[in-house]
Amino acid sequence: MNKFKYYFILLITTISLFSCSKNDTATVESLRDYAVQFTTDNTDIEEYLKTNYITVVDHAGFADDQDITITKIPTGGTQKSIWDQTTYELKSRNVSLHDITYKMYYLVLRTGTGTAPCNLDGVLTAYKGEYLARETTDGVTTITSTPFEEVKYPQSFLSLFSTITGWGEIFPQFKTGTYSSNADGTVTHNDFGAGVMFIPSGLAYYSSGSGIIPSYAPLVFSFKLYEINRLDQDSDGIPSYQEDLNGDGYMRVLATGVTNPDDTDGDEIPNFLDVDDDGDNYTTKIEIKNPATGLPFPFADIPSCNGNTTDPARIKKHLDKACQ
Ligand SMILES: [Ca+2]
Ligand SMILES: [Ca+2]
Ligand SMILES: [Ca+2]
Ligand SMILES: [Ca+2]
Questions:
Q1: Which residues contact 320 (CB under 8 A, 6 or more apart)?
Q2: Is residue 253 within 8 Å of 223, Cβ to Cβ?
Q3: Ligand 2 center–CA 236 separation, angstroms
Q4: How far is ligand 3, taken at its centre, from the CA of residue 275, in Å?
């Protein structure tokens, strides 16, 4: 191979390598700034609220009760937008996360008459989800919504601790209703809480997306809160909603150095995750009393411990590593 040919091949190879690396970097987007993305999402959500109207099915005792349809107001249409209507209260809630304060809108169709979950409980909910996108057709930009999931007859509880942040923020603002069992084995729900939440992507799937939901998509969920299930995240025998020290219905893991209102011993582990809430080296599970007997729960409930006692010395003896 002569020198000229060698350099020519080398040049082509180099150009190819640069081309490849350029294409590769073009497909990888760095994580967007949370504040900037929230501003974009909030603009889209507010435009959606101002250009669409809602109709609600009022059909007590039937599965379609409180079903909703959200429709774009046609040109010249007289329907009142979700933003302008006064039949249902459009509320908002501030959420501190990612070093910014999110504003999250939600529409109250009705509050419910039963019990409100805390942000860590399980919920039995019928719901419908759509994602928003800004699309341009013939030079006109509009907000579109695309359905991605609907559950009409829920069979299991979903933990608000595990679902997207937006759910845990809004469900505690609603209550369950009543239910009655029918002869055919079905259950009828009445007077349950129902609403619609409008979630910025930072409180949903953000950059990852999920299924057909694109990255950075704001979400709209209509929901009906049928039942709640009290959960106990640290398995200490105290359901999490009773570990809510300031009683606001919300418990969280906060950033290092931030005082947590739901942390008795100030070790930055909130009570709902702290197996020794008061930091006295006695696990909560051992300290709590059985309400039926007034005695501590049997050590038999705790792996590798036996016996049942109220004697502090004996409890201490059992609090070696094998018993915790
Ligand atoms: Ca607990
Ligand atoms: Ca709290
Ligand atoms: Ca703690
Ligand atoms: Ca303790």
A1: none
A2: no
A3: 18
A4: 8
DSSP string for 56-113: E---TTSTTTT-EEEEEPPTT--PPPTTT--SSEEEEEEEEETTEEEEEEEEEEE--S
Report the pLDDT value the prediction gives residue 185, as an integer from 0 to 100.
86
Which helix (H) or strand (E) element contains residue 141?
strand 140-151
H or E element, residue 36? helix 34-51
- State the pLDDT at residue 46: 98
Instruction: Tell me whether strands 178-181 and 187-190 are parallel, antiparallel or unpaired.
Output: antiparallel
Looking at 201, 229, 257, which one is the last position of a domain?
Answer: 229
Do residues 161 and 293 share a domain? no
Distances in whole angstroms, Cα of residue 26 to Cα of each of 15, 30, 36, 37, 217: 16, 10, 21, 20, 21
Ligand nearest to the CA of 121: 1
Cα 129 to Cα 142: distance, rounded to the nearest angstrom:
19
pLDDT of residue 56: 98
Which ligand lies nearest to the CA atom of residue 236 in the structure? Answer: 1
* 304 burial via Cβ count (<10 Å: 0-12, 13-18, 19+): exposed
Range of the domain at 313: 289-324
**pLDDT reading at 154 higher than 60:** yes
Cα 292 to middle of ligand 4, angstroms: 21
**Tokens (6 digits) for 211:** 């299924």
Residues 64 and 178 in one domain: yes
pTM: 0.82
DSSP single-letter state for residue 200: -
CB count in 10 Å sphere of residue 126: 22
3-state secondary structure 269-300: CCHHHCCCCCCCCCCHHHHCECCCCCCECCHH
